[in-house]
Amino acid sequence: MRRHHDDEVHEHEIHEHDRGLSYDLPVLARRRMIRLMAGVGAGLVPLVGCTADDASSPAAADPPSSPSAGAARSAECATVPEETAGPYPGDGSNGVNVLKESGVVRSDITRSFGDSAGGTAEGVPLTFTLTVVDAASGCGTPKRGAAVYVWHCDREGGYSLYTEGVADENYLRGVQETDDRGEVTFTSVFPGCYTGRWPHIHFEVYGSLADATTATAITSTSQLALPKDVCDTVYATEGYESSVDNLSRLSLESDSVFRDGHDQQLAEVKGSVEEGYTATLTIAV
């Protein structure tokens, strides 16, 4: 599995993530310690991803009728590379831990909660659904009762809890337990594109909601990529002006995280600026 340095660089500033491997190693070490302390004797389970079509197709949904059929379905459920959480996870591995705060379990992540400033993230509406399924079933069996923590930047490219100006906010972060279909759905806004990174959404998968809200036993960490055509359309709207130039200097093939393969991380996105967008991605653990 791969883990990249996030290269989350904001223009005209020198950030922690600009310090290279010497800075990343302590952060990653802290994350590994969290996992070891959780006592997962069986080791980490790889995160695997499928397209939405894979999860809903008869070949993925039906139980294998023969060993060869099962092997074919497993091949369709390709492994999603594990990625860095970056310098702004908010899960306790790099400073603040929002996962232990009351109110973090929610579906609408556009507003801050608790004792924070109470701000609301502005932008083009985006509702995204992650479907967590069992890898051993070839993406055919939903993982009920798992949990997913998501976070992403606002339309200006800032991260709540960390970036100057929004450090007192905790919007665009939230946790949910997967339902009977293995799904979690979040209401948010379309993230901006900042210097050095392709537009993306971070997520961590946990074995249970209890694990997530105590920030222990992370199953895996990865990132969802957003398609270029949709990004171009969204970034032509008010409030995303800086994203236009930033995106023009990037491609999925040059991005530090997605450049060695993004097929299992690229979301399917539908909708419009006027009515909002929906994004879907199936992941298997």
TrEMBL record:
It comes from the Bacteria. Coiled coil: none annotated. Residues 54-75 have a biased composition (Low complexity). One of its GO terms (molecular function) is oxidoreductase activity, acting on single donors with incorporation of molecular oxygen, incorporation of two atoms of oxygen. InterPro entries: Intradiol_dOase_C, Intradiol_dOase_core. Residues 119-196 form the Intradiol ring-cleavage dioxygenases domain. Residues 54-95 are annotated as: Disordered. PANTHER family: INTRADIOL RING-CLEAVAGE DIOXYGENASES DOMAIN-CONTAINING PROTEIN-RELATED (PTHR34315:SF1), PTHR34315. This is Protocatechuate 3,4-dioxygenase beta subunit.
